[in-house]
Automatic annotation (TrEMBL):
GO biological process, one term: DNA double-strand break processing
Protein name as annotated: Histone-lysine N-methyltransferase SETMAR
One GO molecular-function entry: single-stranded DNA endodeoxyribonuclease activity
The organism's place on the tree of life at top rank: Eukaryota
InterPro entries from the UniProt entry: RNaseH_sf, Transposase-MT_Hybrid
Cellular component, GO annotation: condensed chromosome; nucleus; site of double-strand break
Signal sequence residues: none
Annotated organism of origin: Trichonephila inaurata madagascariensis
Length: 83
């Protein structure tokens, strides 16, 4: 697969390589479970270790919220969170 040979290729580069549209490339990569992160295509699924880390972080934030009202100081902008 072209992505596995060079995961830093963009949709535009792959579209030119396969003589199709960028949107078609995005659609097929999504169906294959790939997402574009950190300037390369990576599997979309989370490893079990990462899931456990996220749960631990969320539990920590929730316990802080109950004791210190930390979420009163959170500013949400789009999908980015700032403390």
């Amino acid at each position: 697969m072209a992505i596995e040979e060079d995961s830093s290729q963009t949709c535009g580069e792959l579209a030119r390589q396969f003589n199709t549209s960028s949107e078609m490339v995005r659609l097929h990569l999504h169906r294959l479970g790939k997402t574009y992160r950190l300037i390369k295509w990576v599997p979309y699924t989370l490893l079990e270790v990462r899931k456990q880390q996220r749960v631990a972080a969320c539990l920590s934030l929730l316990s802080r919220h109950r004791s210190a009202f930390i979420f009163n100081r959170v500013l949400n902008s789009d999908e980015n969170w700032f403390l």
